[in-house]
Design goal:
This protein is α+β, with helices and mostly antiparallel strands. It contains 21 helices and 11 strands. Strands 4-7-6-5 form a 4-stranded antiparallel beta sheet, sandwiched between helices.
Length: about 575
């Protein structure tokens, strides 16, 4: 059944999809976070480096510059020639020259670059030292920081490698005017910036390592989650299976109740399910669909549980009113099953199993494709079983004749494609010849007595005699001989003694007939006449003393006849010889 597995699978697949998306998102977020963290580390490195530079600069600026010995490496700064005491001699005749913060920082950055591969220098749009000329990025950055006076950072490709670039604006202080005052700067002006370029390669390597570690952990967590989902799926499926089994036990218990009420219905549902399964398989239905139609056939008459016994168990033909009542079992079956989630699909199949292809069926008069194809299959299977099974009121057809009738009614009552497949799979089907509605067990005989026994005498009535004589049912009962007994002057007895005493006399006479022979069927016909069907020849003469004693002093007399049952085929032919 699709519902049986589909519901659990849908939940499991949804959980797997959501879990997979969540874990993929976790991997992407992890990678993004780690690479973003690499940017943060580079930014922090740049900020720390700049802060150190600014700390050095601030200290040097507050001292008004620093005098260092001149050498081949440190020559007098030509850009400070405007300062009168740029160069001085110590008492020991050592020549010193004034170095400004920019010079000190440029020397420090040279060392810093060699150690940490970080590129940095001081730049400005009004240069003292042309070597500190801004590149394109720094030029644009300086334009922005002169307005915002806030640091600016971004990433940029330099010589094929990615760098984190950071520019910290230099705000002019009073101590800075000694070297830069002649450039026109005032306190508070942005006179340039410290530019740092940090290569991202090492940071990305660290980020990749962290990402891989995180991703391995996420994958492990993903697999663990998948195991939980699969375990939950199996667990939920087992729970649902148990629930379905419980439902099925209850449903099939109801079916068993119907089977106990009507033995014909039990065999009928099983046979229809078998035939429908064969047809559905021939038509190429999937296993789940075949399972659905099989279950639907097994349950299609469950609504008969609400049909009164007097109608459901009636062996003979139904009256028009009784037929209208029994037709209600279709709607009742649908209502019972559609109220249970796991049976909603098969309830739809059952709902239309008495419709006809031409629209002449019930309950809704649907036709052609308005009827689900699975219902069409059940319709054909149901009809085939009805044709090949003995009924009280109609003898069965052979398989060949039943197939022929299906073909004749194809396109009228039955779907053509379904009939074509039925012909293929049912032509060679073997139908149990023992299938019949005749009573065999004590329960079945008692059921028949409800419909076919005379209420006064408790022997069988004329309707049952007609059934036994018709359609060779006499052979099923194994009877070969007929004895008829006629009571004369019984109407006069009733007139003199009353109907009550007349009924008592009839009852006593009928019960005596029941005792004079074993393995016989006794019938009351036409009010005061009786018929006995026997397996062995019965001599009425032998039992006349007993029978006449019952009629002694009543004014009622009897006569009798005996016949070979082969000469009697129905009630009409019996009447001609009575």
């Amino acid at each position: 059944m699709d519902y049986k597995i589909g519901f659990i699978n849908k939940i499991a697949y949804s959980a797997i999809f959501v879990w997979s998306i969540f874990m993929l998102g976790a991997i992407l977020m992890s990678r993004y976070h780690n690479y973003n963290y690499a940017d943060k580390l580079a930014q922090n490195e740049a900020i720390v480096s700049v802060k150190k530079d600014l700390a050095y600069r601030s200290w040097i600026a507050k001292q008004g510059g620093v005098y260092v010995p001149t050498s081949n490496k440190i020559l007098p700064n030509q850009y400070l020639s405007h300062i009168a005491n740029r160069d001085i001699n110590t008492t020991n005749n050592q020549e010193l020259t004034l170095v400004n913060p920019a010079y000190i920082l440029s020397e420090i950055m040279k060392e810093y670059t060699e150690i940490y591969k970080t590129k940095g220098h001081i730049t400005s749009r009004k240069l003292l030292n042309p070597n500190n000329k801004a590149d394109i990025w720094e030029e644009k950055a300086l334009e922005k920081v002169e307005v915002t006076k806030e640091p600016l950072s971004t990433k940029e490709i330099i010589n094929g490698k990615e760098y984190f670039r950071y520019l910290q604006p230099l705000i002019t202080q009073k101590s800075c005017l000694k070297c830069h005052g002649h450039q026109g700067y005032k306190v508070g002006d942005v006179r340039g910036g410290v530019s740092i370029s940090i290569p991202m390669e090492e940071y990305y390597k660290k980020a990749l390592t962290h990402s891989l570690i995180n991703e391995v952990a996420i994958c492990i967590l993903y697999l663990f989650g998948m195991l939980i989902i699969l375990f939950a799926r199996i667990k939920a499926k087992n729970i649902l299976d148990n629930k379905i089994k419980n439902y099925e036990q209850h449903i099939f218990s109801l079916v068993n109740i119907i089977e106990k009420r009507d033995a014909y219905t039990a065999g009928h549902t099983q046979r229809v399910a078998k035939y429908a399964k064969l047809i559905a398989k021939e038509m190429g239905f999937l296993e789940d669909q075949i399972d659905d139609i099989y279950r639907a056939c097994m349950l299609h008459d469950i609504g008969k549980i609400s049909i009164p016994d007097s109608i459901l168990l009636k062996p003979g033909k139904l009256t028009p009113l009784e037929y209208e009542i029994i037709k209600e079992h279709v709607s009742i079956s649908y209502e019972l099953l559609s109220s249970v989630d796991i049976y909603k699909d098969i309830a739809e199949i059952i709902r239309y199993h008495h419709e006809r292809y031409d629209g002449s069926g019930y309950p809704n008069g649907l036709k052609e494709d308005e009827i689900p194809l699975m219902s069409h299959i059940m319709i054909v299977a149901d009809a085939f079983d009805a044709m090949t099974t003995n009924r009280i009121y109609k003898s069965k057809k052979s398989v060949a004749l039943a197939i022929k009738e299906l073909q004749n009614l194809s396109g009228k009552y039955f779907h053509q494609d379904v009939v074509n497949s039925a012909v293929i799979v049912l032509s060679d089907i073997e139908v149990d010849n023992d299938i019949t509605q005749t009573p065999r067990t004590k329960i079945e005989k008692e059921r028949f007595s409800y419909f076919y026994k005379d209420q006064i005498t408790q022997v069988y009535n004329k309707n049952y005699l007609e059934f036994v004589l018709a359609s060779d049912y006499s052979h099923e009962f194994g009877v070969k001989y007929i004895n008829s007994i006629y009571l004369h002057n019984f109407t006069q007895y009733n007139r003199v003694h009353g109907w009550g005493k007349g009924d008592t006399l009839l009852r006593e006479f009928a019960q005596t007939l029941n005792t004079i022979s074993y393995d016989k069927l006794v019938f009351r016909v036409y009010g005061d006449d009786f018929v006995i069907l026997n397996r062995e020849s019965l001599s009425i003469d032998k039992h006349l003393p007993i029978l006449n004693k019952i009629l002694e002093d009543t004014g009622v007399t009897l006569s009798y006849k005996s016949f070979d049952i082969h000469t009697i085929t129905n009630l009409e032919s019996l009447e001609t010889v009575l």
